[in-house]
TrEMBL record:
It comes from Snuella sedimenti. Belongs to the SusD family. This is RagB/SusD family nutrient uptake outer membrane protein. Residues 85-217 form the SusD-like N-terminal domain. Residues 343-527 form the RagB/SusD domain. Its main location: membrane.
Amino acid sequence: MKSRILILIIISLSLIQSCDDKLDILPQDGIGSATLYQNEAGAVAGLMGVYSRIVRAYRESRFNAMYPSSGTDEGFENRSVIRFYLENSFSSNNAQILDEWTLLYEGVNAANIMLVEVANSDGLTEAQKAVFTAEARFLRAYLFFDLQRAFGGLDGIPMPTEETLKQLLPRTKGIDVYAQIIADLEFAEQNLPAIQETVPGRASKSAAQALLARVCLQRAGAPFTNDGDYYTKARNWAKKVIDNGYHGLNPSYEDVFNKLAQEEYDTKEVLFQIGYFFGNSDQQQSGKIGSTMGFRVDDGSCNNRGFGLISATITLTNAYRNDPTDERGLWNVSPFYVPTNNSCEFRTSFNQMVYAASKYRRFLESGGTGSYGPHHWPVLRYSDVLLMYAEAENELNPGSTAALDAVNQVRSRAKATPLAGPITAELIQEERRLELCFEGLRKYDLIRWGKLQEKIDETVTAMQAADGAENTDWAIYGTGTPATRTNTLLAYYLDGYTNYDNNKHQLLPIPEQEIGGNDLVTQNPNW
């Protein structure tokens, strides 16, 4: 990649196949963006080009899925060779870091170009312009938020907008990045249609409200301070979703993820999802979530491999097993896998240390090949909205019964034992792990709570203590009489934890290639 990545990326908004068949727009070769945005159909086609950048940015499942889970109290990368940047053993010239940075900013640039073209269009009505602008600003805010959480910190990120997309930019202070994200989302919330009126897979008013709640909670926590009453704002945005009367929990936790695997939309529970698509052997719009960190399938003849690159921590496994009625336990942390040459039948793992994060089940996918398939990625779920409401409400009113009720709604759906109260911040934080594990949130949650180092230490201690202990699941789920049923801790399982430097690894480094091409950009601390 040449230098000056942010500014010199060339985006083609002539259309490629969209991320979901409901959004498919045929390519119109030779149509420039100035011509494209002169009618509603052309503007929709341009918008699909922005969505296609979202698909490309997250299709490898490293940045949105594996990275926020690995090296936490939720999961760890369990390979000795496939490290990417998941084990905190890399430098600022890491190729995957550059890839993530570049793809996310390509999406930002595409959204900015759309904003310019919509504003300049003579063929769109003012009402149409408002809706298209709202959707482009939602997508830009979503990308800025991911960039800011991963790379920004107090110093922030370069933040190109439609007014500055041709300029080299320094880093914008983190508080100002959040101000822009919130402004984009507030505009989107005012102008996007209700989710019932939206084409499935596209942004909606509910999605903007839920993302605002998430952004405000992140802004309230470390490394920032709650200097703008962001807990109140987070609570109020979450409450808007709760009070609109449409959204609710799917009665079955399992069914939420069955639908994602089968490319379906459950808009009552899943407020926004990234839809991957696999057709005509086209891998460009498909993704890896089912193969990289889903249910482990060793036999590729059983509807494609599931590599299970992220294992659940023993503390997460035990937390589920301590409440046997909690249906999330066997779904998210399954002792089962599909071995080779076993007629695609399940077998039980001897070692609890290698239980894969099994939330995403590739054998449910209808298509795909190799590592890629059409499994959708959940971005915002209603259960998260309830837990965000509970967290913010409890911060404002410690021991709040309203917060307790919101948490118990989530637990009730999972058949988990209700909490008796009083509710505490620690109980809410643990519920987020139990409900939302492997959905790309845990590392960022622990950072904003100031607890990442604490949870790393606790996890390492627990894993070491479990080494050589009996697999306690075997009496319930195991079959046969293997030579050993003891847990085995391999040294490299701990690499992501022992390599972690709390003064360095809370942020990813700005890619060296970016700094080399733009001397206005400074590096993150200790990189």
